[in-house]
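>> received
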Amino acid sequence: MLIQRMQEKNGNIPTTTASTAALDALKALGVRRISLATPYPKGLAKIQEQFLKNNGVEVLHTTWMSKRTTLAGEISAETVYNLAVESNEAESQAIFISCVALHTIELIEKLEKDLKKPVITSSQATMWRLLRLANVTGWIKGYGQLFHT
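>> returned
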């Protein structure tokens, strides 16, 4: 309903949300089992897990930040990298790093190389989906396996 309302307000220009884009990205890669890394505290992480489960995605392991921060964009790349690595469950098909405010683009390829699986981030998935809605396809170097779909 949110996408429909936003689309009606913007002259019916194709629209998405970060959460819908992430689900679309996971589907495009054929991923059904993930590890989740999020800067949110446990309560919000559990809500994310339930949202993913309700949409057919099994969350095998979740890491969250126990120290609450109000500015996710100030979390260091090293902290995000470690959060993602800590979340990695061997059986997961991909890592999903949730939160559009995190600076993740520069981490995607390194994490994919180190963990040997796709890494999806909220920002990356949103950008990928918006480009696809605009009929722009193709590979973009540095943005991970998702941009090969």
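>> The chain has six helices and four strands.
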